[in-house]
Design goal:
single chain, mainly beta, Elongation Factor Tu (Ef-tu), domain 3, 6-stranded antiparallel barrel, two-stranded antiparallel sheet, 2 helices, 8 strands, 6% helix, globular
C-alpha cells in the first residue's frame, strides 16, 4: 500500500532556528503566526473562523533521520524513552501535532496564537478543536512526563534533534 500526503499550506512563524524555540504550545502562548494556504484549498477554510482552537498536523521538514529512542526536552531525568511515548520530531513519519488558538481567517491566510513551530513548516491538515469531542474526562495519566506546567512553559529547545 502506498499513499501520498499533500502540503496544503505553509506555517510562517517567528522561529527561524531550531535552537531556543519553545518545545510545546504552552511555552509559546503569546506567539503569533500565520498559515498561508494554497489558493486551491482556500474554499476549505469556510466556517473555520467560528472555532476558538484548531489542531495543526504538519511535517517536521528538518528531520533527516528518525530515532526510536530519544531523551525528550521535558524529561528531567534524562532517561532515553521510546519515541512513540514522546512528542519529539524524531518519529519515523516526522509528523507534528499542535493545538493552537485561532485568531482570524482572511482569504487564504489563517492567523494563529500559541505557536511552537519552525518557520516554513509544511502544513498537512487543520482540524477544529471541538470540546464535546476532544475534552478528556476522568483520570488522565501522563506516563513518564512529570514536568510541571511552569517547567513545560519555560522549556526551550537545544540542538539534540538537529542532524549535523
Amino acid at each position: 500500500m502506498t499513499f501520498e500526503l499533500k502540503q496544503i499550506a505553509t506555517i510562517c512563524s517567528p522561529f527561524c532556528d531550531l535552537v531556543n524555540m519553545p518545545v510545546q504550545p504552552k511555552g509559546a502562548k503569546d506567539v503569533y503566526a500565520t498559515i498561508e494556504f494554497k489558493e486551491e484549498y482556500q474554499e476549505g477554510l469556510k466556517d473555520l473562523d467560528g472555532f476558538s482552537h484548531v489542531y495543526l498536523i504538519y511535517y517536521f521538514h528538518k528531520v533527516k533521520e528518525p530515532k526510536l529512542s530519544v531523551i525528550p526536552f521535558n524529561d528531567m531525568t534524562h532517561t532515553p524513552r521510546g519515541v512513540f511515548s514522546t512528542r519529539t520530531p524524531m518519529h519515523p513519519n516526522s509528523m507534528g501535532l499542535s493545538v493552537v488558538e485561532l485568531v482570524k481567517v482572511e482569504g487564504n491566510i489563517v492567523t494563529i496564537k500559541g505557536v511552537d513551530i519552525l518557520d516554513g513548516t509544511p502544513l498537512l491538515d487543520i482540524k477544529p478543536y471541538i470540546e464535546n469531542f476532544d475534552k478528556v474526562e476522568g483520570e488522565v495519566r501522563s506516563g513518564w512526563m512529570k514536568a510541571s506546567l511552569d517547567e513545560v512553559s519555560s522549556r526551550k529547545s537545544d540542538d539534540r534533534f538537529i542532524q549535523k
